[in-house]
Hints:
Elements: H1 7-11, H2 14-20, H3 22-35, H4 37-43, E1 48-49, H5 50-57, H6 61-73, E2 77-82, E3 85-90, H7 92-97, H8 107-121, H9 124-130, H10 135-139, H11 146-150, H12 154-176, E4 186-190, H13 196-204, E5 209-214, H14 216-225, E6 234-237, E7 248-254, H15 262-275, E8 276-286, H16 297-309, H17 317-327, E9 330-335, E10 342-347
Parallel strand pairs: 4-5, 4-7, 5-6, 7-8
Antiparallel strand pairs: 1-3, 2-3, 8-10, 9-10
Helix pairs in contact: 3-6, 3-8, 5-6, 8-12, 12-13, 12-14, 15-17
Amino acid sequence: MAEHLSQSELDYPFKLLEYFNGFRISKVIFSACELGVFDVLLQSQKPMSSGEVAQKLTANEGGIERLLDVLVAIEIVEVEQLHGTAYYSSTDVANLYLAKSSPKSLHNLIMYYSQTIYPLWNNLVDAVREGKNQNERTFGLPSEEIFSAIYRSEEEMLKFMGLMNSTWVIDGHDIVTAFDLSCFKSIIDLGGCSGALARELAKEYPSSTVTVLDLPNVVQTAQRHFVQQDDTVQFQEGDFFEGEIPTADLFILARIIHDWKEEKNLKLLKKVHTACHPGGGILIVEAMLFENRRGPTMAQIFSLNMLVQTEGKEHPPSHYTRLLTEAGFRDAQVCRTGKSYDAILALK
């Protein structure tokens, strides 16, 4: 039954107006990151006036002041008045997640959202009407060639890889500890991109060998830009849809299944089952809907994003367990992490 609104909510649509302005709030944060506001505030030893911030960023003082004031209103920046002048400083959350220099920075994720996802969502109406992604309308690229659009230049590839890196920096530990994976001595992360999730696996299970298998240009870019000095993660070039899949004890498919149609996914899962050692397994990582598809809201929004950008969608756990069973896997277990991504482990 629909919830009845109070008279005050009917007299003035506070909640609706808050939703209407959501895109403006997002763009405020995106723009502050792109300008480098949070890095300047973090590096400063003391609170800064809008004029000082503007000078550091070679920006208009009035524009910076308005931007900072909104950031204060949404509690990402703090302000104090001294002799009639406002002085701004970053909050702990901004220092940790929005400054580019932080080890937990989401700067790359934000840049991808701002410069790639945001333009795609301008065409959401067309995506809903047509039931297909908007790569052609947004970027002039064929809608069927999903990763040709995502990897349309080295700059775009780096943006996407930065997005994936940011994602697993904050969500990776919860995923690799959702189940005890210590019994799997050889692990392959299929489509592991920058290697960020593989690094979390290698840290948690140091006695296991962890390999990222991805397209040659992705592997080469990862090795140039994302490999760390103490890395134990190995990289291998390959195409898991078209080429051979090396054998291993455990295969990771993180944010892969949601990109594609069911027929293609089932074919891939059967290939993985063939390559999996007896007693091995597969770990699927996705933002999973509730079984009634009424949430979580984040997973529903991700599913809309799959509509505007790919040919897939988000699903409830039963969809994945059915596919795994059809592919030959057994004993599927689901772990809801309470964060953005959930995990399903199944055995051969």
